[in-house]
Amino acid sequence: MYQAKQRGRNQVALATDATQGAPGPSLQAELRTALQEDQLRLHLQPVVDVSAPGLAKVVGAEALVRWQHPRLGLLAPAAFLTLAEETGHITAIDLWVLEAACRWLAATPPAAAAPLHVAVNLAGRTLVDPRFLATVRGALRRHGLTPGQLVLEIVESRSLVDLPGVVERLAELRQLGVRVSLDDFGTGFSTLSWLKNLPVDQIKIDRSFITALPDKASVALVRGVLALAKELGVEVVAEGVELFEQLEALRSADCHLVQGYLIGRPEPEPSLETRRVGVGATA
Ligand code: C2E
Ligand code: MG
Ligand code: MG
Ligand code: MG
Q1: d(Cα 252, Cα 275) in Å, to the nearest integer?
Q2: Which residues have C-beta atoms less than 6 Å from ligand 1?
Q3: What is the value of pTM for the model shown?
Q4: Which among 268, 191, 203, 272 is positioned nearest to 234, based on CA atoms?
Q5: Closest CA to 15 of 7, 5, 3
Q6: Boundaries of each EAL domain copy (predicted)?
């Protein structure tokens, strides 16, 4: 708790110290009660359009879960998602986030032009859960959202590829009008074959490629991904933009949808105002 507070605003702790051999209930046991006791928190990070020079216009937000742990403070997903996958709690967490994200979007005043979207991350298990499609439909209806306002982010992995029903489920979701995004693009298992086999609406270029910008090889990679995406009619988002020169490199490659600390960190109530982005003029 002390450590988490010391890290300051928006900083979240990793539970490693406290989970390894510490006395008290196991994180696994506590995870079971986290949902019942309402300890999960919804943080949102703005996704912006930077096609207008110097301006970042919010088009949506990504929902990122945190766990307000009674002893350990605010925990990042890295501290508990693997455990949640192993113990099967992940689907309950994902569905909690889906509901909270839709509720947030419905309560958010519409932006001037187009309606905002909210993006929710999903584990493969959640995606293939038989309840999932009905849950999505119900959440959209309950909160009065159009299906196009919901983006579902999936991470390519061997286990996801091997799950029976993934392709059909994604097709059903897209049929509904919900958008599907391929998260962490470029890092996972068999990226290109995924693009070939799975019809998706969006890809998110992984932060590891953005971090190296404007390094020549990374610029080439980003341009290549954009060209590929254009051919396939897929939207591209660059994630993890921290520096103005990274933003400029993306902009000159015609990559206009971005997300990152430069624009805004994940927060419980993110600012959705259009903001200036320039040297020394960050959010
Ligand atoms: P992700 O979906 O790729 O989300 C982006 C991660 O990068 C987030 O970490 C975000 O806080 C962080 N990030 C954003 N901008 C920057 C930046 O400029 N610099 C740096 N260094 N980091 C940045 P977070 O919130 O810790 O989440 C980590 C991962 O946990 C997510 O990666 C996602 O795969 C997973 N996750 C988060 N929420 C959920 C959820 O509700 N369900 C599931 N299944 N997975 C989730
Ligand atoms: Mg994501
Ligand atoms: Mg990602
Ligand atoms: Mg990730």
Answers
A1: 19
A2: 45, 64-65, 76-78, 81, 90, 93-94, 97, 121-123, 153, 155, 183-184, 207, 239-242, 259-261, 266
A3: 0.92
A4: 203
A5: 3
A6: 24-280
